[in-house]
Structure prediction request, 513 residues.
Amino acid sequence: MLDKLVTGLAVLAASGAGAEVKFVPVDVSPHSYDGGWEFFVGGGVAAFDCNGDGLSELVAAGGANPPVLLRNRSDLGGAVVLEATLPEALNITEITGFYALDINGDGWQDLVALRVGENKLFKGDPECSFTPMDVPGFEGGDAWTTAFSATWEGENTLPTLAFGNYVDRENPDGPFEACDTNDLFRPDGEGYAHIALEPGFCPLSILFSDWGRNGRADLRMSNDRHYYVRGGAEQLWAMEATPRLYGEADGWATHMLWGMGIAERDLDFDGVSEVFLSSMGDQRLMRRTDGALPTYEDVPYALGTSAHRPYVGDDGRPSTGWHIAFGDVTNDGLDDVFIAKGNVEQMPDAAMEDPNNLLIQQTDGSFAEQGDAAGIATLARSRGAALVDLNGDGLLDLAVVNRRAPLEVYQNVSAAAGNWLSLSLQDNGPNRDAVGAVIELQAGERVYTREITVGGGHAGGVSGAAHFGLGASEAAKVRVIWPDGTVGSWQKVPLNGHWQIERDAGLSAWPKS
Prediction:
């Protein structure tokens, strides 16, 4: 299976590969993620466009500190400029992470705040203002929430919301072997009905995705064995009328890790996503091996993806991976990987000086570390992150939240980068952002496949346009498989620009003038 992955990538390698990757720091107001043991984990950042100008804002959790909203004041294609603000509604503490999605279908991004305590929903309005959102049946609870994902099921007018909860702080026998149950809110009329997902094994990342391309998004949970200790494992919930866990009879193998982040991307252009899980110790890249079952195998160390020890300095202890994300940072047509790293706090068996990884994919399908050369090898305790084009120049920039150290933002200034495309979707009905849709983009011999999801990463992620690096390709066409299964027509799309595909109106420039 490894031979197939490497061979497929080598055959389809971009002739434009090999651009030098370089990031430079952006000056932003100081902000850090801080607090006691409940904030050893979390520290997420959400990237989303909150005023419809086509450029992404950032909202970062603060833990015991208030969060920060970084308004994007960049000129298109110019220097990244971010202004720190704090809307009154968001001026609360105990937040571990944020995710953005349009919950009520009004065209503006809403926010889900994960908290140690009551989780909150905030309605987004023009000019990046927010007000508390009250949806019948939704209760924020009082758990220690560390993970989130959302999807739309069927013709529901509301998204299905899943919250992953960490240790039950009220359990007198805890914290070990005291993982809390997880919460699922499924639409019920104009509101929600609550379903407890148990057993819970302390998830630090969860993700709805249609792994089998069968029209149903199931829920993957990556769990932290540090606290479940024994009897637990990674989980995949089949989102049937009554959710159930996949087991070995379904092809789902029992495996355990210190799961902290989830990322998915089709690396070998076969239409099926690989899964990359961050962990304490080695990071686990997995690929599906059965066309009908959720059966995965680890891709061996030969691809250079384990990232299990620091690559600078003399600390040889194991690394601790948190946020993990795919993105083509040089637009050479091959996806790269960013992994946020950092000791939990003072764990003696793990590296203390643990630089973030930037794994650049090579033309043979392997990955080479470029974090230090690229200028992003911070030694802070990093947590959440976002790979997102902040200034609209077609290059993915980087934001990193650090525990007890300032948030960092880097502008991508890589030279000799290849061609690219940025695509956003607009569906009819309440699921305006077409969560669950699949974009197929053909450039040369390759077909890039991208599912629109909400969740994964570590306590935050990117909501908005899908970015495609295309290398030396000179033409592209795209089609969309919409969430209801309708397959759109192939249409040509010009390179090196931002475009929106509306369900009934086709391709148009974005943002609209």
Notes: The longest strand covers residues 381-388. The radius of gyration is 21 Å. Residues 17 and 414 are 12 Å apart (CA to CA).
